[in-house]
C-alpha cells in the first residue's frame, strides 16, 4: 500500500476525509446563525464532549460554512492562563477590519473601533496580557470604565451594530472555553444575553469539555436558556464504518468485515482514534482488502503512536500526585468512579485527595458527570495509565 495515498488524517482539529454522522449538528448550527443574521431569535451553540470526539473539527466546519454565507467570524482558542479580554481584543479587531472591507463608510464601524480602543486601554491595567494595536482614539464613556461586565457588553453591542449596518452577523467561535475563568465567562454570557435581548446580530458557537456546562451554569444561572448545549459523542456503528471505509474506497481500497469489526472495537468509535487505526491499517497492509491480521498489527502501531503523543503530552503535564490519582482511577476501569472509591484505592480519605481531583479537573484531565463521580476526559486513558505506570 502506498503511504503517499493514505487518506487518513489523525491530528488536533485536522478535518477527517469523511466527516460522518455530524450533518444534523452542522445544520442546526447553520439554522441558528442564519436566524441571528436575519434578526430572528436563536440560541448560541455550545458543543461539549470528551477529547477526540471531533469538537474542534465541527467548530471549524461550522465557521467555514458561515463564512461562505457572508457571516463574519471571530475565532479564539482559550488556553490556560490567558484572560478572555486578551483573547477577544485582537480577534474582534480582525473581524472589524473584515467588516470594513464590506463598507468602510458606515458610521457603526468607527464607533466599534473606538469601543475596542477604549476596552483595551481601560482593561489593560487589570489584564496585563492584552496586546492589540489600534491607531484610533477611544470614545470617552464607551467600553472604557475598566469594569469587564459593563465594557464587554458595550463592545459586543458596538461590534454587532456595525455588522447590522452591513446586513450580516458576527459569530464568536470559541474553542476550549472551559479554560476561561468563571468571572470572565460570566461577563461574556451577560454581554451575549444583552445583545440577544436587543436582537443584535451577534452570537457564539463554542466548544469545550463536559465541565463547561457546570462552569457556565455557575457563572450565570440563565445560561441554560441562552445556549443550546449539544453533546458530541463517539460515532454510532454506521457512522464509524463510513468514517473508516469511505476514504479508502475513494482510493480503490476496501476493508474486510473482520477488519472493520476489530477497528471499531479497539477505537470505541471515537473519531480521532478511527483516524489513527485507519492510518496504521493502511500502512501495514500489503494490498486490498485490508484484513483482520492487518487490523491487529495496526492496533499495536496505533497504540504506540497514541502513547507517544496523544496520551503522553497530557500525562507529562501532571504532577506525581496527580499521576498517582489518575493511576488509581485507571485501576478501577474506564469509569466514571465514585470519588470515595478512588480515595480508597489510594488508601486515603476523600478530603485529603480532593485538591488533587480539583486540580485535574482544572487541567481538563477529569470531569464530574454527576455529584461525587469522576471520569476521564480522554477516552481510553485508563488503559494508557495501566501501560505506562506499574501497578500501585
Summarize the structure.
With 392 residues, this protein is an alpha/beta fold. Helices cover 54% and strands 9% of the residues. It contains 17 helices and eight strands.
What does this structure look like?
- The protein is α/β, with parallel strands linked by helices.
- Helices cover 54% and strands 9% of the residues.
- The chain has 17 helices and 8 strands.
- It has helices spanning 23-37, 55-68, 84-102, 107-123, 148-165, 182-197, 211-219, 223-226, 237-249, 257-267, 271-284, 292-308, 312-315, 320-332, 339-346, 350-362, 381-388; strands spanning 44-48, 72-77, 170-175, 202-208, 227-231, 337-338, 366-367, 373-376.
- It has a 5-stranded parallel sheet, with helices on both faces.
- Helix 6 links the parallel strand 3 (170-175) and strand 4.
- Helix 15 packs across helix 16.
The topology string of helices and strands comes to HEHEHHHEHEHHEHHHHHHEHHEEH
Number of E-state strands: 8
End-to-end CA span: 43 Å
Shape, per Cα inertia axes: globular
What's the story with the biggest beta sheet? 5 strands, parallel
Strand order of the largest sheet: 2-3-4-1-5
Rg, rounded, reads: 23 Å
Low-confidence residue ranges: none
* Structural category: alpha/beta
Instruction: Estimate the strand proportion.
Output: 5-15%
Helix content: 40-55%
Number of helices in the DSSP assignment: 17
What descriptors fit this protein?
three-stranded antiparallel beta sheet; 392 residues; alpha/beta; 8 strands; five-stranded parallel beta sheet; globular
Q: What's the topology here?
A:
Blueprint: H1 23-37, E1 44-48, H2 55-68, E2 72-77, H3 84-102, H4 107-123, H5 148-165, E3 170-175, H6 182-197, E4 202-208, H7 211-219, H8 223-226, E5 227-231, H9 237-249, H10 257-267, H11 271-284, H12 292-308, H13 312-315, H14 320-332, E6 337-338, H15 339-346, H16 350-362, E7 366-367, E8 373-376, H17 381-388
Parallel strand pairs: 1-4, 1-5, 2-3, 3-4
Antiparallel strand pairs: 6-8, 7-8
